[in-house]
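We emphasize that the prediction below concerns an isolated chain of 879 residues; any contacts that depend on oligomerization or on bound cofactors are therefore not represented. The input was used exactly as deposited, without trimming of termini.
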Amino acid sequence: MTTMLTAKEIRDSFLKFFASKGCTIVPSAPMVLKGDPTLMFTNAGMNQFKDIILGNVEKKFSRAADSQKCLRVSGKHNDLEEVGHDTYHHTMFEMLGNWSFGDYFKKEAISWAWEYLVDVLKLNPENLYATVFEGSPEEGIDRDNEAAAIWEQYLPKDHILNGNKHDNFWEMGDTGPCGPCSEIHFDSRPAEEKAKVSGRDLVNKDHPQVIEIWNLVFMQYNRMANGSLEKLPAHVIDTGMGFERLVRTLQGKTSNYDTDVFQPIIREIGNMCGVTYGEDEKTDIAMRVIADHIRTISFAITDGQLPSNAKAGYVIRRILRRAVRYGYTFLGRRRAFLYRLLPVLIDTMGDAYPELVAQQALVEKVIKEEEEAFLRTLETGIKLLDKVMEGVKAASKNVVDGKDVFTLYDTFGFPLDLTELILRENGLQADNEGFNACMQEQKQRARNAAAVENGDWVELKAGTPSFVGYDFMKCETEILRYRQIKQKNKTFYQIVLAETPFYGEMGGEVGDCGTLRDASVADGKVIRVIDTKRENNLPVCITTELPEDVTAVFAAEVDLKARIATECNHSATHILDYCLRQVLGTHVEQKGSFVSPESLRFDFSHFQKVTDEEMRRVEHLANEMVRRDIALEEHRNMPIDEAKAMGAIALFGEKYGDEVRVVKFGPSIELCGGCHIPSTGQIGMIRIVSESSVAAGIRRIEAITGAAVEAHVDAVKDQIAEIKALLGNAPNVIETLRKMVDENKALKKQVEQFAAEQSKQLKETLKKEAKAEGKAIVVKFVGEATADQMKDIALQLRGEMGDNLLFVSGTQHDGKPLLTIALGNGLVAAGCNAGQLVREAAKLIGGNGGGQAHFAVAGGKNPEGLSAAVDSVVALVAQ
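Result of the prediction step, given as a token string:
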């Protein structure tokens, strides 16, 4: 090409080309979605056409094309974490696309793609590769030979590659339209690299210069709820071409950020920060992060999504803070600056997206306020982190507790990676395991607090539900009423059945799952019951979709395998409750339980830890009851006084009616409304896997039964076999391990004795080498030693050498430099302060530290500066 096309010209050329093919050019939909419960943001060009594809609305055109603004922060490549570190991932990006709804199909989609890329844009066809779906025998789908044959009209066969289901079979979701796709890849490597390795060997291998630029999706199937595929009556074409990648390819760049899509923004960042792009990798990454994120933030706010602490708003706030943090850490930005990038962003994208121009004042105001708030958070966090580090160093530790790191993150919004960076600079590290544990607890609290939007009940029939699940696992029934609910951006349906075999979650037992199917149709559509809850004491089935005919008669069937496993675990809790009382005493009372198909959990009152011997007795007694195969005795609607007279155990604080259900397995008698196994023998075996404290005076045991016990035993056997192998298949594993432990203790003792003797010798040597420097008696050392050794020597010398001691050492251990200072009481009284001295000297080793007036330490990252740092302390004290 004689002249390089600009980004604007490329976007316009795409739309003009497809307009010439009879496509209606439609505007971009908002990046922030409001009406789709399954998505927070538009993440693909097809989102705005979803209802047309699903047939929910009447189509106004059969061909369309657009440039759609999209946002992705997770998924196939975990985009947010990649952004800025590579050359082609983005959060916000433009997707050029063309569609057909029951009109043209593969032939036109492929031929037009070729025409546009090669004839219009003049891309070298030798650099193009196409993939086609290789087929799926288990799905009964052949290779997409139709697409391959069309491609053979344009490309040599060695440029047409088979792709697997992951890369070349597109699906809208678990159900719905789907089909094979054909990706177009471009190899932009230099000729010498192409001569060494063929581009076909690098397709879909994450090579930064061999990238996918266009994906042509051929929707020709419909995925049913049972996983089968049916042919769509009307085929759909859905293509998506990454605009930024296309611009990069046409402008001959090796990075999306080198194109005129991003360069004006990057240059403006450089002008603001006094940094030149391309001179330092760290600042380059920061500039790329900011250039990408300012687009995302601006368009999200334009579309009505303000930063917040919930859902879509939290995603935008997270992206904004990531940009601020990179500017703060790598570009030295201590004041708000992102909002000042709006004018240059509007210059590059305002023509294509006029809404950005209209909302400029709002966007600038919101970004500026968010930046200033987060910068205050960063300053506060750094001050708090300084105090934490000072305490850690004073305690001669090098790991900051995960709870402290999480408090900085959760309460003050201080990013984990920035905390880790500052800690590394100070010779410390974060307790990531503790941090992650706190994070999981917080997420659980957030899940529990998740808001639920309930629709109105739709009443179909009058009546009261009847639970038949004690006696039957399936039955025919009708729907009495249903309603739609929205939770965590997903839509579910609550269905109340006239007769139901599904147990609603209650008393610690999880709800049943299973299926609903129109009983009048042999191969009727199966509706999955994903859970059963209890609302107003009625079992309510949870589904993700409604039957097509809600007035039909349905066959309702419980998932038999899951129910039986749950029954085994529930009956096991009763047996364990009885056995705990037998072994530990009658003070034991149930304080909570959880029963699922996988395991059981039982909380009970007890004043101390259950010993291993007591736990073994409980387990043996429980399994004896299992082996006796005690039959279930069930008494429904028994007067409560009569039940108590039987000896049935009632839970403290539980409200019971006048009539109750009694569940009896031999001597175990309890009031219970849950589901149980017909006899204890079907449990197989009970295995207690843990015992712990959950609160003052409350213990918890966790256990498994049946097949889960077999798996557990197998795992233990495998572990023992592996240990034996590591010990050379020693006949007596315990004795061999005991011998190794004893030998290790002896060796450790010898090492400690050697280290103590070495420290003693070093201390005596240092005492002999002590020199008077003014009023101070100076003892200094530079060399290899541990932090503990230096601390011991320093404090011993402080007690032995009088009030005017100045001890200062610069040591290394495992490559980490450390300064240690101890002062006699006389020097402290004269105004010397070890904490202040060590902070000043630590600058010479690239670190920081602190401590008390008489003793302080500092870590760093520059061992070469230790000698100078030690000398500087002596000089400062002499002054």
